[in-house]
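ok trying again, last paste got cut off:
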Amino acid sequence: MRPGRKSGLRSSEHRAVAQAKDYVLAHLSESLTTKQMAARVGVDRSYFSRLFKRTTGMTFRSYVRLVRMGHATTLLRDGRLSVKQVAHEAGFKSVSHFHHLFVAQAGQTPLDYQVTRRQ
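nice, full thing came through this time. structure:
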């Protein structure tokens, strides 16, 4: 393998994905679309989608959802915010969508999770 290469990816490709991941972490409560992120890191949307999937094993959208759910879980465990506030803080535009995703992932409602984690 040539220097600067890992898994067949150039270091500039790794940088684009790393920049996207860093941006997601810093801007969770904002709208984060593949198109916007591709423009932010300076590559074509289709290329960014393929690159992100090849590098991380998941789509950009799935990654954003995963990070948001992780942040929401942390906020729920903390217990200082309502479920509605947690959903908003984690970047979910709809509380019902957040509720649906949370139940699918955790097997219980966000409120039940929050109550059981506080005890």
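cool. The longest strand covers residues 5-6. The first helix runs from residue 11 to 26.
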